[in-house]
Design goal:
Number of strands: 77
Number of helices: 26
Radius of gyration: 48 Å
Distance between the termini: 31 Å
Structural class: alpha+beta
Largest sheet: 14 strands, antiparallel
Helix content: 10-25%
Shape: flat
């Protein structure tokens, strides 16, 4: 640098030295100034040198950061102590029942919030006073890294955190990271940390997807013309929220182009001419002149198909007018999408009423006495902290004075005074909260609830609290305290009684520890013989079994066999019949369940076949699983056949369909048949499915007609089937077609006789109690009449089963299967079925907080015969300590809880030598007088009054606010932690106002917001009526006297006052605005002006609304985006109309068409006299708009590819390839940037006709990769056109194209298809040659 002279010296300009601290904002302005005046290169050089300067001096100064640089303000402990004292007072008031749970919680939250803020101020003050060159201070306040809220956590306090549900935890983190967190604080702190991590991950994904949709919707917006010549514009003014200016007018004007001249409001001179672009200086001049509203050109009102240069204005990248061919749509999409990750996901709700927007607080600057003016109009008011205050009803001044000085304060209407007239105040004491003024201060609140839980167990007593029952539409009843009041909990030990327990004591009884309070009885339902199983302590307790009925198979022996490690039982009767036991011993058997099955080979077949019934009748209710019960005997006819299920290729078949085979023949590869007969092959799609071999005699026939009639019938012995063919036995006839010709197959039939009754006797048993239980023998057929059963091995046609039947009195009982040794011969085992009633005796439990210990006594012995309803056992519930029994309410409901007043619930207070002034039953709070000069030290109810002593029963009052929902009744018993009431209160709506990314998405996708507000349809004056049942009615009296009713949903509060004038589309209730409603209201309102005009006005209203709403979300996070970017995207969303009636045009109802297209068609109609099309403007979300673009290729590449392409094919759509995506997909140059000129030539201005693909055969401008590679500048140097610029003017475009691409003529035919690798090699050779040339 030494040898160079600085630019300022070269130009002879005097160097000015600024001695001031430059922070982030200063640097920003410096760079903007350099860029605006000197361009990119000089600015980059300056920034580089600034960086060097910074590093050089940072190195010299040795700026570092260490733990010791984190300075904790010494006033921190004082502030914390003050906050804790304030909270202690609030807690004491809560304990005394002076404030509600909500007010206490709110006070805690607000106290810590204000302490945190105060501490933040202290941190800054301390840094400034102690060491301005502190590295932490420099870093945060220069804007290098970190901000005050992060520094606050390092050296102040971390403050309040929210739990995972989004409610604030009342326990603040008092420490900072410098001091280190306690374990509890660390855990609370990690809730927020986790939320932050999850949020960030979700945010990046959502933001990325949003950007993709934005790019897709606006990718075809390219600057294609210089000036569209529109007369429409957009009026701009500063963007405000209430009194706050979010974006000043000068920032909004930067880089825009004026539609009309801007005239100085005072002097009348023209500051900016029409069609002039606004630089930063000009914007400042306009703002300085006090101009409030300016009309500018905007992409929203541009008449070009995309956007013209004038309507777009400056390209903000280089502060000059945007170039033609600039893809401004993509720039807009990225500008909106990229900051998306910086937006928060959602606001969490606070657990209480958050301070509404307060204009400010008035604190006493010095100690003194308050004076109110005479005739001050005020009304009493309870603040959100439960303090009594006054609301001022007119503007006034109050004064604070002491001996030395006096000061006056202005108090506006609606403010809250927290002091009384004549009250003495301390310095910094809060005197008043001043209400925020202005039209836009929205008082939007929502109803919320908070639980009040009891801190001690005891009895409920209402003091001046009246409960009212309310019934809702569903018939549910709730108890409400309409006027509020106190719920007292009088201490005592509350016992929860187990189900069925009956108290054995009465109110007023005195009992000792371990005395019985209540007992439960275990009762038998059916009675019978008691059996006590061996004691195995199960986790549920012991069991007692009572046998009500049993059946013993005393003649049959049970034999146990072990098969594959599993026990299997067989029963042998004296008739040598063997049964297989189907139900395992020790299991329960239900009514009608199969217990055992006869092992019998008489009904077993060798193969599959067809079953026919002859004379056999079965019960109608057959279950397919269990089979059909035989009602009447007869004969089963069985026609055997062998079936093989295969799944093989047809080529593996070894025989033909209909062929007669001998036993042992291989029918399919590796499958052999076991019987002789005719083969039937079933196949599907050349895959073999089934092969059946039907045994029998085959007789060829000449006359098939005569035989077909006999197909499927039986031939009896002695019958002549064919001439000369007599039957010797029963046969089944079947007509078959064999390779040799038509034939009749005589299939053998087996007969199985079935008796009416099974050969097995049934067993019965009737107990003394009259219950019957028996094992009934039944015969069941598993297959239907005529069913074809496939099998190779054979199957059972009839099963004989023993079924359990329990008498009708108690069919729901189950029986137990048991195997017991025979009384006479212990080696023989018998089967017994027993109906048991099993009663469980609960294990005794030890006492805990909510219940006493239990002791159970068994009242029966093994083998006892007991009657139904007799007691089997009793469980006693014992008291943990002695005391007086209370709280038993007999009559009606069963007693669920018992209260015991013990010594620990009582406290004795001495009154010295004074006589007590209280009486029994009085409710006292700590601090209340009990005798002259003596106050109570405890809160409670007076139980006993003696000469100089009173006995209090400890109690606790809870204040409930009016409208609270009561969860308990007067006199109920509650355990510690039980809910007493739900407090209903109003809080500022912070909870579900969607902010950040979800809000941006809601706006850009044009979704209907949840809980949206009601908008005025036409202008007029409001009438607001508040009904007794808390409902509100809003009516609007319009100019012509019409009264319009606006129904209001639950949870919506009115935003307008009575008698206020409202315009069309203004919100009447709180909540977000639905843009679709806005569009509809303004379209209807302006329809008399004509459809087109109305559509333009209504769309413009929605456009302005959307731009401002999106801006306000980004502004809330401190992100600046130029309006024009949002306007480009909003333009794409608001360009379409829906056809309602096509008139004489070719458009169909329901079709979405661009507004300008409809207008062109309608103009043509008005000339020819045809009926114009009628339409309604629509607002499309970005996804919908992307799918409704002109280009189907672009839409298909975005979403629902198949649907889009199918519809395009059916409709025969054309794609004019106007956007970027479609050209990229097809592989052409994009019509933007340098590629823009290529297309620009083909048709100056409008790009329609030239896009007809028919003319593309000789359109060599569609350059592919290979051509582009060989498209070097050398070929252009030889080109005579270069002299006139790259795209100069030769005779015709066609000739020029041929000239420019003449290098193609030198290629041999063989060389045309060069593959990529060779092409790369060629490129490398070219590079080397270039290198040689340079040498």
């Amino acid at each position: 640098m030494a040898g160079q002279t600085s630019p300022s010296q070269r130009e002879g300009v005097k160097t000015v030295f600024f001695n001031r601290i430059i922070n982030k904002g200063g640097l920003k302005n410096l760079i903007a100034w350099a860029f605006g005046n000197y361009g990119t290169a000089r600015t980059a050089e300056m920034a580089d040198r600034l960086k060097d300067l910074g590093f050089r001096y940072a190195t010299r100064a040795g700026v570092s950061i260490s733990v010791d640089d984190l300075l904790v303000p010494p006033k921190k402990q004082e502030l914390l102590k003050a906050a804790e004292d304030e909270i202690r007072v609030a807690e004491a008031r809560y304990t005394r029942g002076e404030i509600t749970e909500v007010e206490r919680f709110q006070k805690v939250i607000d106290t810590w919030n204000s302490t945190n803020e105060e501490l933040k101020e202290q941190v800054i003050k301390y840094f400034r006073a102690k060491d301005v060159l502190n590295s932490v201070y420099m870093m945060a306040f220069s804007g290098a890294r970190g901000n005050i809220s992060q520094v606050r956590q390092l050296v102040g306090m971390r403050g309040l955190m929210a739990n995972p549900q989004g409610e604030i935890i009342a326990l603040p983190i008092k420490t900072n990271f410098r001091e280190g967190l306690t374990v509890t604080e660390y855990i609370i702190s990690s809730y927020g940390a986790r939320k932050g991590l999850v949020d960030t991950a979700l945010r990046t994904a959502d933001s990325g997807y949003l950007t993709r949709r934005l790019v897709d919707v606006s990718q075809d917006v390219i600057v294609r013309e210089l000036d569209c010549g529109t007369r429409q514009g957009l009026s701009l003014r500063s963007m405000t929220d209430g009194d706050r200016v979010l974006i000043p007018l000068k920032d909004r004007l930067f880089g825009r182009v004026m539609l009309q001249d801007v005239v100085h409001p005072k002097t009348g001179e023209v500051i900016a001419a029409a069609n002039q672009a606004v630089s930063a200086e000009l914007a400042s001049q306009i703002a300085k002149a006090g101009v409030e509203e300016v009309t500018v050109r905007s992409p929203l009102t541009c008449a070009a198909r995309s956007v013209c240069q004038y309507c777009y204005g400056w390209s903000l990248a280089h502060a000059k007018m945007v170039d033609t061919g600039e893809a401004v749509g993509i720039i807009a999409a990225q500008s909106i999408g990229e900051p998306g990750t910086q937006l928060t996901m959602r606001t969490f709700h606070t657990g209480g009423v958050f301070t509404a927007e307060l204009a400010g607080q008035i604190r006493a600057p010095f100690a003194g006495q308050i004076k109110f003016p005479k005739g001050l109009r005020s009304r009493p008011f309870r603040t959100r902290h439960g303090e009594d205050a006054l609301v001022v009803e007119t503007n006034c001044r109050i004064s604070l004075s002491n001996d030395e000085r006096t000061q006056e304060f202005d108090v506006s209407q609606g403010s809250t005074l927290l002091v009384r007239d004549g009250q003495s105040v301390q310095p910094a004491q809060l005197i008043a909260e001043v209400a925020a003024t202005g039209r836009n201060v929205r008082k939007s609140t929502e109803k919320a609830t908070k639980d009040v839980a009891s801190d001690l167990a005891g009895a409920v007593q209402f003091a001046d609290l009246i409960s009212e029952e309310k019934r809702d539409r569903q018939g549910n009843t709730t108890r409400i305290a309409p006027r509020g009041g106190l719920i007292w909990i009088l201490s005592g030990e509350v016992y929860n009684l187990p189900p069925g327990a009956e108290p054995v004591v009465n109110n007023g009884d005195r009992i000792e520890a371990e005395d019985v309070l209540a007992e439960t009885r275990l009762v038998t339902e059916h009675g019978g013989i008691v059996r006590l199983p061996e004691q195995t302590e199960a986790k549920g307790g012991r069991e007692v079994e009572i046998i009500t009925a049993s059946v013993l198979l005393d003649t049959a022996a049970v034999i146990a066999e072990s098969q594959q490690g599993r026990e299997h039982y067989t029963i042998e009767t004296q008739q040598n019949q063997r049964f297989s036991l189907k139900a395992a011993p020790g299991t329960k058997v239900q009514n009608n369940q199969v217990v055992a099955e006869l092992i019998d080979d008489n009904y077993r077949t060798q193969t599959g076949g067809i079953l026919k019934y002859s004379g056999v009748e079965v019960g109608k209710r057959g279950k397919a699983k269990q089979g059909y019960e035989v009602v009447r005997g007869g004969t089963l006819l069985w026609i055997p056949e062998e079936a093989h299920e295969v799944n093989k290729d047809i080529s593996l078949l070894q025989i033909e369909d209909g062929q007669y085979v001998e036993a042992g023949t291989e029918v399919v590869k590796d499958i052999f048949c076991q019987s002789s007969g005719v083969v039937e092959v079933t196949q599907k799609n050349d895959i073999l499915r089934e092969i059946v071999i039907k045994p029998g005699e085959l007789h060829l026939v000449d006359d098939p007609e005569a035989v077909i009639a006999k197909d499927g019938t039986f031939a009896y012995p002695g019958q002549e089937v064919l001439p000369g063919l007599m039957m010797a036995d029963l046969r089944y006839l079947e007509y078959v077609e064999t390779p040799e010709g038509h034939a009749l197959l005589l299939r053998p039939v087996q007969e199985f006789p079935v008796p009416d009754e099974p050969s097995v006797p049934s067993q019965e048993s009737v107990q003394e109690s009259g219950r019957s239980i028996r094992l009934r023998a039944v015969q069941r057929l598993p297959y239907k009449d005529g069913e074809r059963v496939k099998s190779v091995d054979g199957l059972d046609l009839l099963r004989t089963q023993l079924v359990l039947e329990i008498g009708t009195e108690a069919p729901q009982l189950a029986a137990d299967i048991e195997i017991i040794p025979d009384e006479n011969n212990p080696e023989v085992q018998r089967l017994q079925l027993v109906i048991l009633e099993s009663l469980v005796i609960r294990r005794d439990i030890a006492a805990d907080q909510t219940q006493g210990s239990t002791n159970t006594r068994l009242l029966v012995k093994d083998g006892d015969q007991i009657a139904p309803g007799a007691d089997v056992a009793r469980t006693e519930i014992r008291a943990k300590q002695g005391g007086e029994v209370q709280g038993i309410r007999r009559g009606g409901e069963t007693v669920r809880r018992v209260l015991l007043i013990t010594e620990s619930d009582l406290v004795r207070l001495s009154t010295g030598d004074q006589t007590p002034t209280v009486k029994v039953g009085d409710l006292l709070r700590a601090g209340d007088p009990i005798a002259p000069g003596v106050t109570a030290t405890e809160t409670g109810q007076v139980m006993q009054v003696n000469d100089n002593e009173i006995t209090l029963r400890i109690a606790r009052p809870y204040l409930v606010s009016p409208g609270a929902v009561l969860q308990i009744n007067d006199g109920d018993l509650v355990q510690r932690g039980d809910s007493l009431a739900l407090l209903v209160f109003e809080r500022a709506k912070t909870g579900d106002i969607i902010q950040g990314l979800p809000r941006i998405e809601e706006l850009l996708e044009a979704r209907r917001p949840k809980e949206m507000c009601v908008l005025a349809q036409r202008p007029g004056t409001t009438q607001v009526i508040y009904n007794d049942d808390d409902s509100v009615e809003i009516k609007v009296i319009e100019a012509d006297g019409t009264i319009e009713d606006y129904p209001i949903g639950p949870g919506q509060g009115p935003m307008v006052g009575d008698g206020q004038s409202v315009g069309a589309g203004e919100p009447l209730t709180d909540g977000p605005i639905n843009p679709h409603d806005l569009l509809e209201i303004f379209f209807k309102l302006n329809e008399p002006l004509g459809q087109h005009r109305a559509a333009l006005i209504s769309l413009q209203k929605v456009q302005t609304f959307l731009v401002n709403e999106v801006q306000s979300v980004y502004q809330s996070q401190g992100i600046e985006i130029a309006d024009k970017h949002i306007e480009v995207v909003v333009r794409q969303m608001t360009s379409k109309v829906r056809i309602d009636d096509g008139g004489d045009t070719t458009m169909l109802p329901g079709e979405l068409v661009d507004l300008y297209q409809v207008e062109q068609v309608n103009e043509a109609m008005s000339i020819t006299g045809g009926a114009p099309a009628e339409f309604t403007p629509v607002l499309l979300g970005i996804t919908k708009a992307s799918l409704n673009t002109d280009s189907f290729i672009s839409a298909a590449s975005f979403q629902e590819t198949t649907r889009v392409l199918t519809e395009a094919a059916i409709e025969g759509k054309s794609d004019w390839l106007r956007g970027l995506k479609e050209n990229v997909i097809i592989g052409r140059l994009i019509p933007a940037g340098t590629g823009f000129n290529t297309y620009e030539e083909l048709a100056s201005g409008e790009l329609d006709s030239s896009y007809d693909t028919a003319g593309l055969e000789d359109l060599v401008d569609v350059i592919d990769d290979r051509t582009a590679r060989s498209y070097t500048l050398e070929s252009l140097e030889e080109d005579d056109t270069v002299g006139e610029g790259f795209l100069g003017s030769v005779s015709t475009p066609k000739e020029r194209r041929r000239d420019r691409f003449s290098f193609g003529a030198n290629l041999d035919d063989d060389d045309v298809l060069i593959d990529d690798e060779i092409a790369d090699d060629l490129d490398e050779d070219d590079d080397e040659e270039d290198g040689d040339d340079e040498d």
